Amino acid sequence: MQKFDVVVVGAGFAGMYALHKLRGLGFTVKVVEAGDGVGGTWFWNRYPGARCDVHSLEYSYQFSEELQQEWSWSEKYAPQPEILEYANHVADRFDLRRDIQFSTRVTSMVLQESSRWILTTHSEEVIEAQFCVMATGCLSKFNIPKFEGLESYAGEVLHTGDWPKHEVDFEDKDVGIIGTGSSAIQAIPLIAEKAKSLTVFQRTASYSIPAHNSATDKEYEESIKTDYAEFRRSNSLRYAALNNNPNPVSALALESDERDAYYQSRWNDGGLSFLASFNDIGSNLEANKTAATFVHRKIHDIVKNQAVAELLCPKTVLGCKRLCVDTNYYGTFNRDNVTLVDIGEAGIDKISEQGVIAKGEEFSFDTLIFATGFDAMTGALLDIDIRGSNDLSLREKWQDGPKNYLGLTISGFPNLFTITGPGSPSVLANMIVAIEQHVEWIASCLSYLRDNSKQRIEAEVTAEESWIGLVNGIAETTIYSSGCNSWYTGANIPGKPRIFMPYLGFPSYAEKCESVAEQGYSGFKIS
Ligand code: N01
Q: Which of 52, 53, 139 to mutate to test the pocket of ligand 1 (most atoms within 8 A of CB)?
């Protein structure tokens, strides 16, 4: 049996940095990764058009000044192959691969009386560690809904979150795609250019803002790099740890012409900063409606067929489901080879040997793409049979939704840490910033235990309960409590408990984590 101080599960951006940081502190570390390469989400999501919608100069590590100085991104929003190249560069530059075991899936984790963990892999290999760091990702367990007849479909089946490494040929193919979230919105324009026909099955329309992607502005890059540390520091003080230029004015304070002119300027800038156009889009439904109406008008301007435009106009609260960022998404519906099928709440009737049956009609395809998202935030963790104190399984513990302390630790599961887990800013912050903050907190915590000759740390039940109350209490003051069916709440997976999972507001979160550590890890039992 292999024995380590720490086992890290996952070699995405979180796992790679955890390895580098903890190894640097003298811990023996092993990373176990299901894929045959590093990069996590950027390893699996290779669909056409996949790119990050956070500016590349921000969606990158800041832990090494040399790394951030020497790396140059080719575009404002880096495409998936370049982000994967960056992940590989980091793995080589910091000599990470020698401690990563690829193509190995952890299937079970059992706590011993000694407070050490025994992990078993898909190939029955056994690994023991004092601490486990779950770097399993928030969007890593892809979801194919259990459509009736799915197994009878005879054509090619693809999922955006599990895309093949080889190039997929759409030439002369009739293609169907189910879903209109961020992945579909990026893939649809490019697939439409190649395929003979593309049919899009939409259950809920999405708001999308143009990316206006471009080559990296070298002068801007230079100006950031002259004091990259300060740029990072000031971004980490923003709500989502992003440089999104928040406007401190209420949307309701302006006359409609003036307000629309401002929305237009944000639309011209492109991207997620549209959400920061005014300070109450995320908290006041009336303010939110002004933004939604502006986007509806844009859709009607772009899409020639007004009936199709109306179907593409979301009826939901803007930002309540994740805002999308696109390049020519709405315009793609002006192509003769693209058809929108709005299936609404009735959904897909079933899958047939030929393709999809919806609204009583059969659509035949050579290729059927599922852009149907993920069992987000908890799916990858619950896929592993994790058993803590008194043989309690995490599946049982979280049967009514995830419960933890600081989004980092779970009572009943000592010496186990989750990176960007539910209850932390995670998916509603710049993920790389959130990852680095978590890894650094965990590294300090393990150093503290070692320096004080302690072997065990576990969240107290009361601390956990008040943390969940705090996370939900914050969400209740925002549009996220308006009842929309987003994956933030688990609503996209039938039967999954509904609970708003992310913690809103990176700066206050980071402060809380820091003060817990400063107070000798208040809310934890240490022995
Ligand atoms: O998944 P989604 P995604 N029948 O869950 C539909 C990140 N990301 O892979 O809305 C019919 O958003 C579902 O419909 P509905 C980003 O955080 C980032 O696109 O549930 N349809 C929806 O339209 C993002 O939010 C980037 O009614 C069904 C779609 O499938 C997250 O990943 C790029 C269905 C799923 O959309 C996930 O995005 C890509 C069913 N049974 C992704 N089940 C960037 O950085 C689901 N759907 C740019």
A: 139
